[in-house]
């Protein structure tokens, strides 16, 4: 995985057909997705339950590029090796998921994956200030985690600007997760984000048998981010 700050669109398969993950991953990559974003929920850290490492391992052969695994689970540490073995390129844990995020991030890198840290909307940018040398990605939640299709929380834009300044020249991605569409994408891109997760805005109107719509949706978000 090489580093750059170009806009990358990461469709979240949370908004795809759960009976068809392999074909959905292949369809979005063929239609221009840069990364595939995989939302793991445990029914404890967040209200919903999605799936775990076995599903990640099953979809891995259907993804040519980056598998970006967002863990909305607590505890995290007992499952890191399983997600790394499942082929996650990036494993992101929440700063709110436990008392020892520093140890968790170390364990993610030790397992051979890139380490991401996610911040809920109420968590300040300063919570990651002492973690900058051990992360490859900071995920700013622009909705409360747990469900797709929620409304973008505008107060997070200032947080993105603060994080972008804090990061300086370090090779750390800023990822935005929640409510990203062609209207909100330019706001976060201008604030300094480079990875845009989008569930509903990518998958709406399309299907594996009508995948061109995915391509149009991805292009609309990317063009808005680049030209907004
Ligand atoms: C929320 C998830 C998001 C979600 C984004 O808990 O982490 O990845 O799928 O979905 P949209 O783009 O529909 O807000
Ligand atoms: Zn996510």
Question: What does the model show?
Answer:
- The chain is 32% helix and 19% strand.
- By secondary structure, the protein is an alpha/beta fold.
- The chain has a single domain, classed as Aldolase class I (TIM Barrel).
- An 8-stranded parallel β-sheet has the order 1-8-7-6-5-4-3-2.
- β4 (90-94), α4 (101-110) and β5 form a beta-alpha-beta unit.
- α6 (185-191) crosses α8.
- The longest helix has 16 residues, at 212-227.
- It is globular and about 45 Å long.
- Residues 12, 14-15, 37, 39, 70, 72, 143, 145-146, 148-150, 177-180, 197-201 line the site of D-xylitol-5-phosphate.
- Zinc ion binds at residues 12, 37, 39, 70, 177, 197.
Strand composition percent = 15-25%
State the CATH topology: TIM Barrel
What value does the Rg take, in angstroms? 16 Å
Give me the CATH architecture, please: Alpha-Beta Barrel
- What's the N-to-C terminus distance? 27 Å
User: CATH superfamily assignment?
Assistant: Aldolase class I
CATH top-level class: Alpha Beta
Largest sheet: 8 strands, parallel
**How many strands?**
8
The helix count comes to: 8
Structural class by SSE content:
alpha/beta
Estimated helix fraction: 25-40%
Bound molecules: D-xylitol-5-phosphate, zinc ion
* Spatial strand arrangement across the major sheet: 1-8-7-6-5-4-3-2
Regions with little confidence, pLDDT below 50 for 5+ residues: none
Q: What order do the helices and strands follow?
A: EHEHEHEHEEHEHEHH
Question: What's the gist of this structure?
Answer:
The protein has 228 residues and is an alpha/beta fold. The chain has helices at residues 21-30, 53-59, 80-85, 101-110, 156-167, 185-191, 200-203, 212-227, and strands at 8-11, 35-41, 66-72, 90-94, 114-119, 137-141, 173-177, 195-198.
